[in-house]
């Protein structure tokens, strides 16, 4: 390689970098380091989330937007462990922490310490209530309400519903369930006749539903929290009962099952959940805060809905064993920030 | 015997020092007042929980409910103790009494402690979920102040660890009652023959465990500022590992309070160290186990050498 070629390469690199800096405030954040503090990696949603974060981070580092973006996951999904992890990140000298919290409140002490040490903390999905942190929240209650609204539009006659909840004692579970119950109050032709905890996992949900089914009258609909719809469907089938209208949660196995049912007997339903790509949104929001952008503390991210019309496209783009996803870009983040202002 | 007692504390102390040196080398920022506090403040509740576990192991039992119990205390502290201090205090006292009664029942009916405490862990968990169905509550102001106090010379985490170690050392090793309690674990029958009411001693040991469990939960809420029903579940295994790492033994009567505190600090530091190493989380639990096995192997080697000599 000749020197002139080298120079040419360097010049074009500089141009690319210059172009990038114009739109992303690169000059200010190229020496900043961002860490992802994640509490759990044991399901398809979290795996997809980690992968999206890593892809986004790798690209951002390669483009010189930030100096480093590392992902850390605690091994036992415990708030005390994650608090220690956050304190370690302060010691490691990170400039910002992107946080998916094990508890909305139990990390407040550690988050406050990070803020006091001058770090930017952006929480998403599992958000924290500490006022110094940014929150990218999903309106989980609205998600619960929307499920019942959809059922009401499909089943105007109403009937008995089975509720599958998530992990007991977790904020998200509580919020979605509240939304569902608010929806049922509004559409009083429905009645929740049974409620089980499926822990957002198909196998747990299947066992729980199979256990409660014999004691239930006819069920017309199942309201879920995601990751539990396929297990519920299997339990209904095994019990020899008619498959009710099950609201799904964007998992690949659920979508696959839905497509099969649709081809077989024209089954129609709705699938909704938040996209694991929200981690990439949180990354860009943290970058914008570091760049000195004025970002409101509370941001909302829309949930990802899959309908009968978009089923095939969603199924095609979702790898087996994973969950339907959207990767957010810097522009998406700027749009979300502008909306919140 | 004094040589043995000294040996018991040397190994945990050396493990902590080695780990600390390695951490400082990797992360020089930790080598400061601020850094030491960040590194160790969450070890304070773990140290208290480890002492609670040690009280039980001391009388030759094992407590599988420590984590759930500390979680329950945290929930009560963040709700009742904050909103209605008298009621909250009464509830915490009732918990300690329950623990003492549990000890008496285990002895009187000759039940296996491992089964009773496992059962009780579900009771504690249920009550905690009942009190705080979703995470929340807030720390009483005085508790938060106490846990974030900045004493001169050494950070809170270090001062607290030393205080816990000294107080429990006098309670368990130096005091007459402590000696008898250790005797219960070593040989309950001979303690009984000597005219001591073993059932009351066992109740006392369990009561002390309850007391330190309560302190652990309160310290935890002071640090985190709020609670949830699952907040301290991992303390069960951490506390057992801490006692053993600190030179205690399952055979009863052979415990070291100072060692238990050092064991808790070592375990906390070990996970920070692994995180500084950027080890994948999939390997971290395994690596923590490896550190534990390493220390226990070293202890075995030491003991064999001593037996030969």
TrEMBL record, chain A:
State the compartments where it is located. Answer: Cell envelope
Coarse class of the primary localization is: other
Q: Which domain of life is it from?
A: Bacteria
Q: Which stretches are transmembrane?
A: none
Where would one find the signal peptide in this protein?
1-22
Q: Which keywords does this chain's UniProt record carry?
A: Signal
Q: Which CDD domains match?
A: PBP1_ABC_sugar_binding-like
Assigned protein family: Belongs to the bacterial solute-binding protein 2 family.
What PANTHER family does this protein map onto? D-ALLOSE-BINDING PERIPLASMIC PROTEIN-RELATED (PTHR46847:SF1)
The molecule here is called: ABC transporter, substrate binding protein
What is the organism field in this record?
Salipiger mucosus DSM 16094
UniProtKB/TrEMBL annotation, chain B:
Where is the major localization of this protein? membrane
List the Pfam families.
BPD_transp_2
Transmembrane residues, as ranges?
7-26, 38-57, 64-81, 87-106, 113-133, 153-173, 203-225, 231-248, 260-279, 285-302
Q: Which InterPro entries match?
A: ABC_transp_permease
UniProt subcellular location: Cell membrane
Q: Which GO terms describe its cellular component?
A: plasma membrane
**Topology in the membrane?**
Multi-pass membrane protein
Q: What molecular functions are annotated in GO for this chain?
A: transmembrane transporter activity
Concerning CDD domains, the annotation shows:
TM_PBP1_transp_AraH_like
Q: Give UniProt keywords alphabetically.
A: Cell membrane, Membrane, Transmembrane, Transmembrane helix
**Protein name (Swiss-Prot/TrEMBL):** Ribose ABC transport system, permease protein RbsC
> Which species is this UniProt entry from?
Salipiger mucosus DSM 16094
**Taxonomic lineage of this organism?**
Bacteria, Pseudomonadati, Pseudomonadota, Alphaproteobacteria, Rhodobacterales
């Amino acid at each position: 390689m000749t020197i002139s070629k080298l120079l040419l390469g360097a010049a074009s690199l500089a141009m690319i970098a210059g172009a990038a800096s114009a739109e992303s405030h690169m000059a200010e954040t190229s020496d900043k380091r961002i860490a992802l503090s994640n509490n759990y990696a044991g399901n398809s949603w979290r795996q997809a989330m980690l992968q999206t974060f890593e892809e986004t981070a790798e690209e951002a580092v390669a483009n010189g937007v930030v100096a480093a973006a590392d992902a850390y996951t605690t091994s036992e999904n415990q708030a005390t462990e994650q608090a220690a992890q956050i304190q370690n990140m302060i010691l490691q000298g990170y400039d910002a922490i992107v946080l998916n919290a094990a508890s909305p409140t139990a990390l407040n002490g550690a988050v406050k310490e990070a803020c006091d040490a001058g770090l930017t903390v952006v929480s998403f999905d599992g958000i924290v209530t500490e006022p110094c942190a940014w929150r990218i929240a999903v309106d989980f209650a609205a998600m619960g309400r929307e499920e019942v609204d959809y059922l009401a539009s499909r089943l105007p006659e109403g009937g008995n519903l089975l509720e599958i909840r998530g992990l007991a004692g977790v904020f998200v579970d509580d919020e979605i369930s509240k939304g569902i119950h608010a929806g049922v109050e509004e559409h009083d032709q429905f009645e929740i006749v049974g409620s089980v905890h499926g822990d957002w996992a198909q196998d747990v949900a299947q066992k729980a539903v199979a256990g409660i089914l014999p004691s239930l009258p006819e069920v017309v609909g199942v309201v879920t929290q995601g990751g539990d719809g396929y297990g519920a469907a299997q339990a209904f089938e095994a019990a020899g009962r008619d498959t009710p209208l099950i609201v799904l949660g964007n998992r690949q196995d659920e979508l696959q099952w839905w497509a099969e049912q649709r081809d077989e007997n024209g089954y129609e339903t709705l699938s909704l959940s938040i996209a694991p790509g929200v981690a990439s949104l949180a990354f860009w929001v943290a970058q914008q805060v570091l760049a000195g952008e004025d970002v409101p503390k509370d941001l909302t991210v829309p949930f990802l809905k899959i309908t009968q019309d978009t089923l095939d496209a969603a199924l095609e783009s979702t790898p087996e064993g994973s969950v339907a996803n959207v990767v957010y870009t810097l522009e998406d983040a700027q749009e979300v920030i502008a909306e919140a202002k | 015997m004094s040589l043995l007692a000294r040996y018991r504390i040397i190994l945990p102390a050396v493990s902590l020092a080695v780990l600390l040196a390695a951490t400082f080398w990797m992360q020089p920022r930790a080598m400061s007042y601020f850094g030491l506090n960040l590194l160790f403040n969450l070890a304070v509740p773990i140290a208290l929980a480890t002492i609670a576990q040690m009280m039980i192991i001391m009388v030759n039992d094992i407590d599988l409910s420590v984590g759930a119990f500390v979680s329950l205390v945290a929930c009560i502290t963040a709700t009742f103790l904050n909103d209605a201090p008298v009621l909250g205090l009464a509830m915490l006292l009732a918990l300690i009494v329950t623990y003492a009664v549990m000890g008496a029942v285990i002895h009187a009916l000759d039940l296996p402690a491992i089964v009773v405490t496992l059962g009780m862990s579900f009771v504690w968990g249920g009550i905690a979920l009942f009190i705080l169905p979703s995470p929340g509550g807030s720390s009483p102001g005085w508790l938060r102040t106490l846990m974030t106090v900045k004493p001169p010379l050494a950070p809170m985490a270090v001062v607290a660890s030393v205080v816990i170690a000294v107080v429990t050392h006098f309670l368990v090793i130096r005091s007459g009652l402590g000696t008898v309690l250790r005797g219960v674990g070593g040989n309950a029958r001979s303690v009984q023959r000597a005219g001591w009411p073993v059932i009351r001693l066992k109740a006392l040991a369990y009561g002390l465990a309850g007391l330190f469990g309560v302190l652990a939960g309160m310290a935890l809420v002071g640090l985190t500022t709020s609670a949830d029903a699952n907040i301290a579940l991992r303390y069960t295994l951490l506390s057992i590992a801490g006692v053993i790492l600190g030179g205690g033994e399952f055979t009863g009567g052979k415990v070291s309070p100072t060692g238990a505190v050092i064991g808790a600090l070592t375990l906390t530091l070990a996970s920070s160290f692994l995180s500084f190493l950027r080890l994948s989380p999939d390997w971290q639990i395994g690596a923590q186990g490896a550190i534990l096995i390493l220390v226990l192997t070293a202890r075995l080697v030491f003991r064999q050498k001593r037996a030969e000599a």
